[in-house]
Automatic annotation (TrEMBL):
Regions that span the bilayer: 20-37, 162-182
Annotated compartments: Cell membrane
Highest taxon above the source species: Bacteria
The protein's name: MscS family membrane protein
Amino acid sequence: MNWETMQVYLGLGDTKMHWIVRVFLVVLITLTINFIATRILMRIDKQLEKTKTPWDNVLIHAAQKPIGVFIWLAGLSVAAEISGKELDPNFISFIKATREVGIIALLTWFILRCISESERTLTSSNKIANKVDYTTASAISKLLRATIIITAVLVALQTLGYSISGVLAFGGVGGIAVGFAAKDLLANFFGGLMVYLDRPFAIGDWVRSPDKNIEGTVEHIGWRQTRIRTFDKRPLYVPNSTFSLISVENPSRMSHRRINETIGVRYCDFSLLSTILSEIKEMISNHEDLDTNEIYMVNFNQFGPSSLDFFIYAYTKTVDWRTFHDVKQDVLFKAMQIIESHDAEVAFPTHTVHMANDSQMTLLSEQTNSPEQNSAKQSQREQESTKQSANKQNSK
C-alpha cells in the first residue's frame, strides 16, 4: 500500500475537500492513534512486569518512544504531501527522502535502546540469575552501538544517493593519515580495549600502581581514559595507554588481609617471654576472625635497643578495610592483656644516665681538655706546690 492509496483509504484523497481541512484531519488522526498506542503499550508493559523473563520488558521499553515518533513521522509526512501537492509539487521528493531517512533513524534508535536496556538488565535486573560484569557489558554495548551507528550512517547516505564505495575508499586512504595524526588517541583506544578484554580491574575496584602515584576507586572506564576517585575524593583521569606501561595492583581482589605487628617487652621479663608467646599463639589459633588455614606465627624476633622484640603474623578472614582494623585491634588488645597477666610490660625506648662524683668530674674534665690546657694547668699546680714548700721553709 503506497501513500496515495492510504490517503484514499482514509478518505483524504477527495480533491473537493480543501487541503487545509485534510491536513487538519491527518494531524487529528495522528494524535488519536498516538494516544491509543501509548495507552496500549503502557498496559502491555504492566502485564509483562508480572512475567519471570525480563526480555519482553526490554522490547517494550525500547519500542515505546520510537513507536510514538514513528506515528508522528507517518502522519506529518502524509500532511506534508497534501500540502506539497497544493503548494510546490517538487517538495514531495524532499518529503519522501526525509521519510526514508527518518525511518532509518527510528530503527537505529530502537536498536540502540534495546542495547541500553539489555545492558541494564544484564547487570542489575533481579530476574537474571547470573549477572554479567558491568565492565564487560559496557564494552560489548559500546562496540554494538558503534557498529549500529556506522551502519545506519552508511545506509542513510546510500538512501540519499551518495556512493558508499567512495566513502569507504576515502576511509581507507584517510585512515592512514588519521592514524598518524591521532596516534595517542588510538593508543588510548586500544589501551581501553585491552582493559576491557584483560579485565585487570572493574568499576568499583580499589586499584593502585607502584610505578605511578595512582591509587583510588575506579568510577568509569571509557575508550580514551579511566576516571579514578582518589581517597581524598578528587577525580583522577588516567589515559588508557598508561595501563599498558605500568603495573597495576588490585587490592579489591585480595583473598585475605595480613596482620604483621612487632611488640617488645622489657629485658627483665625475659624469663616470662616463652610463656607469653605460647599463650598469644594459642589466642591466635582460637580467634574466630583469623584464618588458621593460612600460615600464622608468633615468634621471638630480635634483641632490640631497649626491648625483646617478637612479632605476630596472621591472616584475617575478612578483606573489608574497616572490619580488618577492628579484628587487628582486638588481636593487639588481647596480646596486651596476656602480657599484663604475667606482670610483664611492653617496653619503650629508655636512656640510662650515670651521675659522676667530684673526683670523677675533675678527671673527666682533664680528659676532655686539650693538651695545651692540660700542660698549663700542670705548670700552675707545680708553681703552687713550689710556693707552698718555700713558705714552709721560711716558717721553720
